[in-house]
Amino acid sequence: MLPKEPLDLPTEPLDLPKEPLELLKPKTKKQEPVRHQHTVETILEWTAPGRPFKKKSRQYYLTSILIVVLVEIILFLFSQYMLMLVILSLLFVAFSLATVPPSDFKYRISSEGITIEDHFFLWQELYDFYFKKREGVDVVHVRTHSFIPGELTLTLGSTDREHVKSALLPYLPYRELVRSTFMEKSGDWLSKNFPLEKEVK
């Protein structure tokens, strides 16, 4: 009887890791700092007077004083002394605005909102915009959602209206037609029929 040959049993490979669970562990990578892709971008920036200003003639002041004197006499006859003081105060403010030229403001339209000097307004706070001409100068009015301030006034100066319009359109709707208020209609009617000074052509 021949001797039985030894059976070839499988041997345990020596190259296996001592802890097979290490293969299941996820490899941890070094976390890199998150970089924000969104950055604030300046779309348009310009400098212009803080309000529309037009130098008044001597006739403007003389006519204003004459009208106020007549109104003061009528109020004095009716003993409306407090109202007389109010009229004089309004005349002083009107003369101050007509005499002292405004300082230049810095306006900036960015991807986040509108900046006027040190005041910043987010696009979420603004409603729409429209253009008007005041004292011969183009002015863009931006209305706000909140009651205060209600409206932003940006004097364009030498800046082109179309440039400002193209900068605002991606963020705010443009109102082509705006109805004038009762006060604006009354002021236009008075300035047209009873001008305080003659227009120089």
Folded structure, characterized:
With 201 residues, the chain is α+β, with helices and mostly antiparallel strands. The protein has one domain. Helix content is 29%, strand content 22%. It contains four helices and seven strands; from the N terminus they run βααββββββαα. The strands form two sheets. It has a four-stranded antiparallel β-sheet, with helices on one face. Strands 5-6-7 form a three-stranded antiparallel β-sheet, with helices on one face. A hairpin with a 2-residue loop joins strand 5 and strand 6. Helix 1 runs antiparallel to helix 2. It is elongated.
Summarize the topology.
Layout: E1 42-49, H1 58-77, H2 81-99, E2 104-110, E3 113-116, E4 119-122, E5 126-134, E6 137-144, E7 151-155, H3 161-168, H4 182-193
Antiparallel strand pairs: 1-2, 2-3, 3-4, 5-6, 6-7
Helix pairs in contact: 1-2
